[in-house]
Amino acid sequence: MRKAAQIAGAAAIAAMLLSGCGSSSEGDEESKPSQSADGADKPASGIDGAWQSKSANGTVTLAVIGESATLSTGKTACQGTVQDMGTTMLALKCSDGDDTRSMGTVKQTGDKLTVSWKNGPTEEFTKTEGKVEIPKPDLPSGTN
């Protein structure tokens, strides 16, 4: 039941991103403040949006809203935060406990986002526009 709730949370964040955000120019995106849980304005992460990459196992989708990040591989769902540690980092926790994509260093070049995962591959994501198909993770039986 807990895994289903984690996946539902990840899907909700992705759905908000995909349905509620329009595109903006790169310059505007970095200057927009976002609100933290305590109500204080914080700068947007600069990588807000939906991103997709192809891996040997299928499509990997990354959704970023401010300081929140969700990743779906079709086999697992991960959620966490975007952190500024001198460089932009993703800190994620995956529903199946896999740590392959738990900590990644992010580099953005135009509409490309390269994430070098500490315990996994380096992946190049492309910014997507419009509707994005979020791969549904394989759930253990009885969690529907």
UniProtKB/TrEMBL annotation:
Ranges for region Disordered: 21-53, 113-144
Protein name: Lipoprotein
Range of residues in the leader sequence: 1-26
Keyword field contains Lipoprotein: no
Keywords: Signal
Bias (Basic and acidic residues) ranges: 124-136
Organism: Streptomyces ochraceiscleroticus
Source domain of life: Bacteria
